[in-house]
Design a protein that fits this description.
55 residues; mainly alpha
């Protein structure tokens, strides 16, 4: 993925940082800030909570 991003930035004649900044700026997000193309994971999805021991 790193090479693909570098190649795209080089082809556009911009730095990798500017390329990534522009990708992020154009990324559409929902009201919670999650990208529309990504299904958000729930905090405990597929995981059980471990008991905490106190001293």
């Amino acid at each position: 993925m790193h090479r693909k991003a570098n190649d795209a930035a080089d082809a556009a004649g911009v730095s990798l940082g500017l390329y990534l900044e522009e990708l992020i700026r154009r990324d559409e997000v929902d009201a919670q800030g999650c990208p529309l193309w990504l299904t958000p994971r729930t905090q405990h999805e597929g995981q059980d909570e471990l008991p905490l021991k106190t001293a």
